[in-house]
Amino acid sequence: MNFEKAKQELLEWLAIPSVSTLSERNADTRKAAEYLHQKLLSLGLNSSILETAGHPVVYAEHLKADPTAPTVLLYGHYDVQPTDPDNEWTTAPFAPDIRDNAIYARGSTDDKGQVWAHVAALEHHLQTNRQLPVNLKILIEGEEEIGSPNLKPFVLEQAAKLKCDVVVISDGSMFAPGVPTLTTGLRGLCYLEVHVQGAKQDLHSGGYGGAVANPIQALAQIIQSLRNGNGEILIPGIYDSVRPVPEAELEGWKRLPFDEAALMKSLEVSALPGEPGYSVLERLWARPTLEINGIWGGFQGEGQKTVLPAKAGAKISLRLVPDQAPDEIFELVKKHIQSLELLGVTVSVKKLHTGNPALVDSSSPAALAAIAALERAYPNTEPSFVRTGGTIPVVAVFREVLNAPVLLVDYGLPDDGAHGPNERFTLECFEKGIETSIYLYEELAKLKT
Ligand SMILES: [Zn+2]
Fold first, then answer.
1. Ligand 1 centroid vs 373 CA: distance in angstroms?
2. What is the pLDDT of residues 95-130, one digit of tens each?
3. pLDDT, tens only, 238-248
4. Does the bond joining 100 to the residue before it have cis omega, within 30 degrees of 0?
5. pTM of the model
6. How many angstroms does the Cα of residue 135 sit away from the middle of ligand 1?
């Protein structure tokens, strides 16, 4: 494997500012798609740039003569987050810099570096064996950082073309340096907004206070009724469909090198409160949570204004775990809020966004192939099964539309600074990522189809 070459190419790709959310970067975003497309063509893959209603998708195939070989779909994204605050970067985000054994640039770990680890692995197989061990389809999108608005329609439309036996994604982080990791669970999401309306307009708090309901007070009562100080959610029925974590998985989590004190120190907090009886990792990965994300109402300016406001509201999100269904959870929350007796105000609850939780069966043939690849890349370390507290909506899309298992084999590190200033991808992670990918395609070739 030619690591120097892979590194130089990644540096060139990282220099293209493919910030999908900024329309002034649209031409650059397309340029990043074009760069990848040209590389895949040069490897002999049947690559094309497919238009969507937004940024294009790079789609490529390399199908073997043997149609019974397993088909792998590699997913990733070539778009990146904005870079502000720019003054916090040591070197410019789109002038990739190598220092302290890491590549510093926006997109280095999320996700261009991890995509390129796969590209370099494919190049290795094609140069050594003239072919890949599996039938391969590659789908690299340009809208992940803006919520993949066009991906589901694309996958639905192209479902026949995208048919595969397994989906591979490297777009996250290992549990810790040197801990080869397979991510087996993702939380889902239910995002909603609560609006409380009192009188038709803001009123004088002296002239009306005592007679007219205050929507902020009502909102506070609503929020107070949703969860207690321990983080336990008080909405009836909310825990009914929560699937317990298998004992063996819990035992594995206990062996992970997780340091609560270090986490508190890094966040500058004095405690990590949460549901009694559950470890921090259980609370992050396998328990539902409810957070108030924002709140508004009344006078917020300098000084004082004796107002009895007409409106108040809050943005609220729940992280969900298997087998909670986001739409059912929304109905439970809505029903609960509407059951509260709040005189003199009207309350509306609006659903903004949902995403399904997901689990990968860690004893499935695909997961075992990933474990075998990790064992070959890290001969002296037992791979760890972890979950993540976040949500990757595309995982649910692939599972639902393509009915294929999704393998999350992540090559970054938790402190790579994805989405923040000084994002980096360590050279060691990059090199190990290429190596793991090489083995992964070999191991997946053994899957029966
Ligand atoms: Zn990403």
1. 22
2. 999 999 999 999 999 999 999 999 999 999 999 999
3. 999 999 999 99
4. no
5. 0.86
6. 24
